[in-house]
Design a protein that fits this description.
The complex is a heterodimer of chains A (111) and B (112). Chain A has 111 residues and is mostly beta strands. Chain A is built from no helices and eleven strands. Chain B is mainly beta and 112 residues long. Chain B has no helices and eleven strands. In chain B, strands 2, 4, 5, 6, 9, 10 and 11 form a seven-stranded mixed beta sheet that branches. The chains are: A mainly beta (111), B mainly beta (112).
């Protein structure tokens, strides 16, 4: 079955690094995604990683994938107050061509 | 020039009414989706269409009927609205079914 879990809440200080974790169960996932949702807004695609990669870096964002443990993380370097939002990981169920979302992690960045 | 646009942004209506939400994408994508986000922010797929053909129908009540007049549009019609239908509905599109999905800003539906 499909199940994607995230911790619900993370609080950091401005300038620190944030690490948001995600675990999934579907071993056939081919793509894993990170989306950002600001209050009252839609979902913004931040980055994604193919399942045959173990790391991807994009400016302040680093995605790590441990396929054996089915663990995905998103590291945000030099976190800013504008990074405060809900972050969703999602796995692509290739067989059914649908995204299965995690529960979302609310990141609060304090000055 | 918004990539995925939904209308209306807010919809407040009474139980029992019928309403529609429209979605259009100008990205030239073949696949479009509807997702529902509940009050706890949980997101779940409802439908997907590929080039006007229904691909996924995720055990959604048949009061919900998607319609795709062409591959750039996927509208959602809801009959006999119930209190539990209150949620934010997101439209999304992707080039192909296994490609990154781009989301609209959502339609917040409130049932009185």
């Amino acid at each position: 079955g499909e199940d994607v879990e995230q911790s619900l809440f993370l609080s950091v200080r401005e300038g620190d690094s944030s690490v948001i974790n995600c675990t999934y169960t579907d071993s056939s996932s081919t793509y894993l995604y990170w989306y950002k949702q600001e209050p009252g807004a839609g979902l913004q695609l931040l980055t994604y990683i193919f399942s045959n990669m173990d790391m991807k870096q994009d400016q302040r964002l680093t995605v790590l994938l441990n396929k054996k443990d089915k663990h995905l993380s998103l590291r945000i370097a030099d976190t800013q107050t504008g990074d405060s939002a809900i972050y969703f990981c999602a796995e692509m169920n290739t067989g059914f061509q649908k995204l299965v979302f995690g529960t979302g992690t609310r990141l609060l960045v304090s000055p | 020039d918004t990539a995925v646009s939904q209308t209306p942004k807010y919809l407040v209506t009474q139980m029992g009414n019928d309403k529609s939400i429209k979605c259009e994408q100008n990205l030239g994508h073949d696949t479009m989706y509807w997702y529902k986000q509940d009050s706890k922010k949980f997101l779940k797929i409802m439908f997907s269409y590929n080039n006007k053909e229904l691909i996924i129908n995720e055990t959604v009540p048949n009061r919900f009927s998607p319609k795709s007049p062409d591959k750039a549009h996927l509208n959602l019609h809801i009959n006999s609205l119930e209190l539990g239908d209150s949620a934010v509905y997101f439209c999304a599109s992707s080039l192909l079914g296994n490609q990154p999905q781009h989301f609209g800003d959502g339609t917040r539906l409130s049932i009185l």
